[in-house]
Amino acid sequence: MLLARRKLLRGTLALCDAATLTASFVASYLIADIVFQRKFESFAGYAWLLALIGPAWLASLRVFGLYSSAVYASRRFLITRLVQAHVIASLLLMSSMYLTHSQAVSRVLLQVFLIISFLLLAAQKFALRAYLEHARRHAPVQRRKIVLVSTPEAAERYLNLVKAHTSMLADVIGIVTPTAPDAGLKKR
Predict the structure, then answer these.
(1) pLDDT tens track for 102-116
(2) Which residue has the higher pLDDT, 84 or 9?
(3) Distance in angstroms (rounded) separating the CA atoms of residues 27 and 11
(4) Spatial contact of 92 and 60, defined as CB atoms under 8 Å apart
(5) Is the dihedral angle over the CA atoms 3, 165, 134, 137 positive or is it negative?
(6) Please, what is the end-to-end C-alpha distance for the chain in angstroms?
(7) Does residue 91 carry a pLDDT above 90?
(8) What CA–CA distance (Å, rounded) separates 71 from 77?
(9) Could you tell me which residue, 40 or 109, shows the higher pLDDT?
(10) Is the pTM of this model over 0.85?
């Protein structure tokens, strides 16, 4: 159940990222056309770039762990990973355009896209983080109640794991630790 839920979350995130990137590209085209008064060919002439943008960004986001709930534990860690993924995806896009000798693509359009896509992806990721934190604190019905039976060290590791993964909706309601053997008994 928990694994299926995480898989659904990853698929939903990838779909939302693809929609965010597409919206970023459309907005970039409009902004570059209107604000910078660039007269581009029709949007259909630039739509082929989405075939490069989608896989580059989705792969980069996956490699840098943005489809794992552990990344959403800290704002700093989230923004660091997002910047890394964005830089690598940008380099992939620019490299593929260089290899295909695509001089017809406007640099202004690409620069505006890189800025807008980063801002929209960051907004999306921080909104998701806020939602996960809210759901973690305010969804007691969906939270699993857990009693840990372990050593104090192992219990501490598990508590840190639950704290780090915001998608793990679990409440530890008790910890049972084994007692030390009696001094009178012999160890074998």
Answers:
(1) 777 788 888 999 999
(2) 84
(3) 24
(4) yes
(5) positive
(6) 41
(7) yes
(8) 6
(9) 109
(10) no
| Cβ-contact 95, 111 below 8 angstroms | no
Helix residue ranges per DSSP H, the chain: 2-34, 43-46, 49-63, 75-99, 107-138, 152-164
Amino acid identity of 136? R
Cα–Cα dist 25/50, whole Å: 8
CB-facing half-sphere around the CA of 104: CA atoms within 13 A: 8
Q: Residue 5 contacts by C-beta under 8 Å, 6 or more apart in sequence?
A: 167
Question: How far apart, in whole angstroms, are the C-alpha atoms of residue 19 and residue 25?
Answer: 10
Long-range contacts of 85-90 (CB under 8 A, 24+ apart): 85/57, 85/60, 85/61, 86/57, 86/60, 86/114, 86/117, 86/118, 86/121, 88/60, 88/63, 88/64, 89/53, 89/56, 89/57, 89/59, 89/60, 89/61, 90/114
